[in-house]
Design brief:
The complex is a heterodimer. In chain A, 77% of the residues lie in helices and 0% in strands. By secondary structure, chain A is an all-alpha fold. In chain A, helix 1 packs parallel to helix 6, helix 2 packs antiparallel against helix 6 and helix 4 packs antiparallel against helix 6. The radius of gyration of chain A is 19 Å and the shape is elongated. Chain B contains 17 helices and 4 strands. Chain B is globular, with a radius of gyration of 24 Å. A two-stranded antiparallel ribbon of chain B has the order 1-2. In chain B, strands 3-4 form a two-stranded antiparallel ribbon. The chains are: A mainly alpha, B mainly alpha. At the A-B interface, helix 1 and helix 4 of A face helix 5, helix 6 and helix 7 of B.
Chain lengths: 194, 599
């Protein structure tokens, strides 16, 4: 028994199952982060005062650049697959993975600097929403890294057996990765700058 | 849009031709076949049985609560001595335990009973068969969503055995009460909810992709059975409404574990001492996030039930559904509108008259598509020679029961009358009429209707009739008096039924005894169903593919269908409910029969 349209597109919808699935998943993610951003707005509007300048803008800016670059390398990883260049694909996917790791390392330094001064989530509502939003976003980065590690490791052998489906998987991973990147592009100004 | 849905370029990937009715064996071991299966039918049955067990468990909790309400302070018979010192010393229920039962009854019935049975069970088993798919689009994710549900269920159940017991802040878990340190089970409740939400999200993605991508040749959207439409809209509700509750759950977990105060306002005092929180939180925010899920959740509970009832009514009236298109447009409208009515649960919170005016307007508007669907189903009965089978009895009962539930909701949707009725037994009567004799009756109808497809055996009609009439009478005696109590002003969630509260003097508290007796009798009337369910597996009359002479695609597969479902690729030639077509040889023209066979 084969499930249809796992690799080929269904003609009347123009979609593979996986692509529709990842878009629906992203729709639910929009609702998840949408609810958290709404929470941020409501808490901030209702707060008597809102702290400014508690976060390290430079580290945040560097992390923004890192994530945007990782989105670019992610696209390149997919594009080089489409051009049948396996070597370049590996190079770009590994770069994406390393950039993601670098993002988390930076985040670790940010968090530990706060912890060192006793600025825990219970310190203020601002820090509470900061830790919740960036923590959840960090978990999404981690999830993306796990998927990439799989596609670099045991998942990579699918390229030989079913190159189209492997390219589809990289594309779906890319869509997810761009979304995670996009969330950060909202998080950075909202938490660090405003 | 492609009128027929036939796509010449499509790979005939469903083709899985086997010349015999035997299920195709891919030599899987027992564990992979029955426990960690990826077959949508096995997963559907797993969901259904787990859901039924949770329904029975949640119902049992309620029967224990009803003892306390009928006979406040008297030792619980039979099981009282087993409940333990911190729940019911000497068999007499403690208020804390009553609160645990109340919170967990709601949580279990909604999130672990009805939804898994209606969506996970019926959706998984029936929907792929009705659209002619070999399986769900993502079989492994389907298995993962079932096991996430089981994990969530186990987490919830184990919370009863922890120190301090299960969650006791109602199924709505309003802070600050739910965030206070005394409510230990609340953390488990939140973790359990996160598993259940994950399960629903995975399931809903799978359902939508399956319906969009795996429809058989010729099955255009307007030829989909109404049940599939109901599942389609339900999946969108689950997909988009659950994430905000997940967010809220994470925030409440942070409040409980990391000491934040998202939902904790400044200046709270508990037992004369200020609560040490950083403050500035907003307890109303939880209610908004919670009801943003929980109102669409009401439609998650009711839409699959409407779908089941529509299938059964068309089949047993031997007529097309009256106004199929209007029903489809109504169900999609319901889906959209259900996202903008949530704050009608919050008229008492002081959120302001502008908000109340907006939400009571949308609430009145959303009643229109519900009434369109119910009226269409009612008019479908007109002039039919009805077959009064057991599934049809339950489906027919659904119509007035859901009608009562819906109409009694109108006074709750208007802020001025809601202020009187809020938090009384009237509310309990209202939503139970929607969910218990409404949805759960529809689910029973579905079990009797599709049991032959799932097992190849028919359930017993006599036991079915006993089950139906007993349940129908008892359940009305349970819920009808609640309207009287509620209108008189009796508050809900009081562990002794209000006997000790002076403001309840003169209220119809004695009705609690009537309700209690009816509830326990309702429990007894489920025994014929359990006997029937298991007995029919062994002694039931064996049936062929289409015992009900129905028209939709699932009846073209063997009973029970093998792995991959269909023996030949299903092709759809017509709409879903072509019963009693003038000039046709039989009184049903199935979707899978070519025109020539009809001549």
């Amino acid at each position: 028994m084969n499930i249809p349209y796992t690799v080929d597109e269904r003609p009347d919808t123009g979609l593979t199952n996986g692509k529709l699935g990842i878009w629906l998943f992203l729709a639910s993610e929009v609702m998840l982060f949408g609810a958290l951003f709404s929470t941020y707005i409501i808490l901030r509007v209702g707060a008597p005062e809102w702290p400014h300048g508690e976060l390290n803008i430079w580290l945040g800016a560097i992390n923004t650049i890192i994530l945007i670059s990782s989105s670019v390398t992610m696209v390149m990883a997919w594009a080089s697959l489409k051009m049948n260049d396996w070597g370049k694909h590996r190079l770009f996917l590994i770069s994406t993975f390393l950039l993601a790791a670098l993002f988390l390392v930076n985040k670790y330094f940010e968090y530990s600097a706060h912890f060192a001064t006793g600025e825990l989530p219970s310190h203020s509502t601002f820090l509470a929403i900061y830790y919740t939003l960036t923590g959840l976003h960090g978990l999404h980065i981690l999830g993306g890294m796990i998927v990439m590690a799989y596609l670099l490791g045991p998942g990579a052998k699918m390229w030989k057996e079913n190159s189209d489906q492997f390219a589809n998987r990289i594309e779906a991973t890319g869509l997810y990765w761009h979304f995670v990147d996009l969330v950060w592009i909202f998080l950075f100004p909202v938490l660090y700058l405003l | 849009m492609d009128k027929t849905g036939i796509h010449p370029g499509g790979r005939p990937a469903h083709v899985d031709v086997r010349g015999h009715d035997e299920p195709h064996h891919e030599e899987l071991g027992w564990w992979r076949k029955y426990v960690f299966s990826t077959d949508h039918k096995v997963i559907g049955i797993q969901y259904a049985i787990t859901g039924l067990l949770f329904l029975l468990f949640g119902f049992t909790l309620m029967m224990i609560m009803r003892w306390q309400l009928a006979y406040p302070g008297r030792p619980i018979p039979l099981i009282g001595q087993w409940l333990g010192q911190d729940r019911a010393p000497m068999g007499i229920m403690l208020p804390e335990f009553y609160n645990q039962l109340g919170a967990m009854h709601g949580t279990i019935m909604v999130f672990m009973g009805v939804v898994p049975l209606a969506v996970g069970g019926f959706g998984n088993f029936v929907m792929p068969l009705q659209i002619g798919a070999p399986d769900m689009a993502f079989p492994k994710i389907n298995m993962a969503s079932y096991w996430a549900y089981v994990l969530g269920g186990v987490t919830m159940i184990t919370s009863f055995f922890l120190r301090g017991g299960a969650a006791q802040s109602g199924w709505t878990s309003y802070p600050p009460l739910a965030t206070l340190p005394i409510a230990n089970g609340q953390t488990m409740w939140l973790l359990g909810m996160i598993f259940l939400i994950t399960s629903s999200l995975l399931g809903s993605i799978n359902f939508i992709v399956t319906i969009v991508q795996l429809r058989a040749k010729g099955l255009s959207y307007m030829r989909l059975p109404f049940f599939v439409w109901a599942q389609f809209v339900t999946s969108f509700l689950l997909l988009l409404a659950f994430p905000p509750l997940e967010a809220a759950g994470v925030l409440q977990l942070m409040d409980r574990l990391a000491g934040t105060s998202f939902f904790m306002p400044s200046g709270l005092v508990l037992s004369g001492r200020p609560i040490p929180v950083s403050g500035n939180g907003n307890p109303l925010l939880w209610q908004h996030l919670f009801w943003f899920l929980a109102h669409p959740e009401v439609y998650v509970l009711i839409l699959p039930a409407m779908g089941i009832v529509a299938e059964i009514i068309a089949n047993n009236t031997r007529k097309p559904l009256w106004g199929y298109k209007a029903m489809v447009y109504s169900v999609t409208t319901l889906g959209f509108l259900s996202f903008i009515v949530w704050a009608h649960h919050m008229f008492m919170t002081g959120m302001g008259t502008t908000m109340s005016a907006f939400f009571q307007t949308t609430t009145m508007i959303i009643s229109i598509p519900s009434v369109v669907i119910l009226t269409s189903l009612l008019l479908s009965l007109w002039g039919a020679s009805i077959r009064f089978t057991t599934p049809m009895l339950f489906a027919l009962a659904f119509l007035p029961m859901f009608g009562i539930g819906g109409l009694t909701g109108l006074p709750l949707g208007l802020a001025p009358s809601d202020i009187h009725l809020h938090d009384t037994y009237y509310v309990i009567g209202h939503f139970h009429y929607v969910v218990a004799p409404g949805t759960i009756f529809a689910l029973f109808a579905g079990i009797y209707h599709w049991f032959p497809k799932a097992t190849g055996k028919k359930m017993n009609e006599v036991l079915g009739a006993i089950h139906f009439w007993g349940s129908f009478i008892c359940i009305n005696i349970v819920f009808m008096p609640m309207f009287i109590q509620g209108l008189a002003g009796m508050n809900r969630r009081m562990y002794d039924g209000g006997a000790l509260y002076t403001h309840n003097a003169g209220l119809p508290i004695k009705l609690n005894l009537v309700i209690g007796i009816a509830a326990w009798s309702l429990g007894l009337f489920q025994i014929p169903f359990i006997v029937n369910f298991f007995g029919s597996l062994k002694w039931g009359k064996a049936v062929d593919r289409n015992p009900w002479e129905a028209t939709t695609l699932e009846w073209s597969a063997p009973s029970p269908p093998g792995h991959g479902n269909f023996l030949t690729e299903p092709i759809v030639y017509r709409g879903p409910y072509e019963y009693s077509v003038p000039g046709a040889a039989k009184d049903f023209s199935a979707q899978f029969e070519p025109e020539k066979a009809q001549a």
